[in-house]
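Reading a protein record of the kind used here takes little practice once its layout is understood. The reader may check this reading against the record printed directly beneath this paragraph.
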Amino acid sequence: MATTKKKLSGQILEVPPAKPGMVLKGDPELAEARAVLFRAQVRESQALRRIMDGAVKKIEDSAGAQPVTVDDTRMLKASERSATKAAEKGIRDAFVEADHEVEAGVRRSISRATRAQVAHLEKLGIRPPTPEQIRRIRESVANLMNEEFPPGSGMTYSMRMELNRREHTRQIKGVLRQKYPDGGASQRIARDVKVGLTDTRSVRTPLRGGSASKKLRRIIVAEETRLANRAEVAIMRVSGVAFAYWRLNPTHPWYGGREVCEWYASRTDSATVDILATLGITLPASALQGLYRLDNYPDYPHPFCKCYPEPWFPTKFKPKLRELSSAAQATGRSTADLLAAGSAMVIGALSVERARKREAELEESP
């Protein structure tokens, strides 16, 4: 089979031609709920583009008010300074407005994801968190926007927004380092703003990482998806769910298992297998693909990733999983925290729980 080189998840890989329609697994209603969230992300990305278009329009209008040719050198410099200040203010205001839009979009995304996850848990016969618990989860996860991500990167959401703003402002200031003998500085500054904020294709001007609109789209998709996933995992944890699948998003093409999300969706970790064996649960290899304990659930792997978690709580194993949940409550822990403590702790807690049940049954017997 012919392969091609393609940049996937930050790597250049030799992959076969992508095949759509090979990755849709799990609950179709949950997949559709995620598709709704992704369509909302498209609308929100378009809103960010409109913010940048509005900034460009204001700066172009300001440039149009400047004289195209000026004979006096001092007047020329004053015209350039005026155009530059207008550009700096336009960029600053646009990024402030974009920041508010991203934060609002993240909160909407968290709300959509948690509603879908609660409905799914109810369908599985699992008691979801109370409305107050859901409210606290949404609020605490939304506050994670300014945590360091990825871990060890030293970068937060606010830092990325500020760096993007500074980069585009610095680009505008660089224009003034050139000479404009024809006095057209203000128009050229306006053109450079347009290239930097909205489109690098119309003018052959390279800009690392693309325009501000493209970078903001990357940021809003990453923040919304990773925090929606965090909120859903928190909902599962509070509900007593201990395992979840890594599900590829419904539109994800298949690259032969080489891409990082495909890797997560087709594997599991040895600790999950060991814990299942401790519980006396044996699954076929196909059912283990993409299954993880919540405490070991994969982190958001790359920009534009739209994969999501799906709880594993099958009817066949409900008695064993409910026993595990009761054992966890008896130790004052969540199910996921008990599993994270290891097989020995799980065995001990189950032994205590089974002994308690036997004593209760003996007391009730005549």
About this structure: The domain at 25-243 is CATH 1.20.120 (Four Helix Bundle (Hemerythrin (Met), subunit A)).
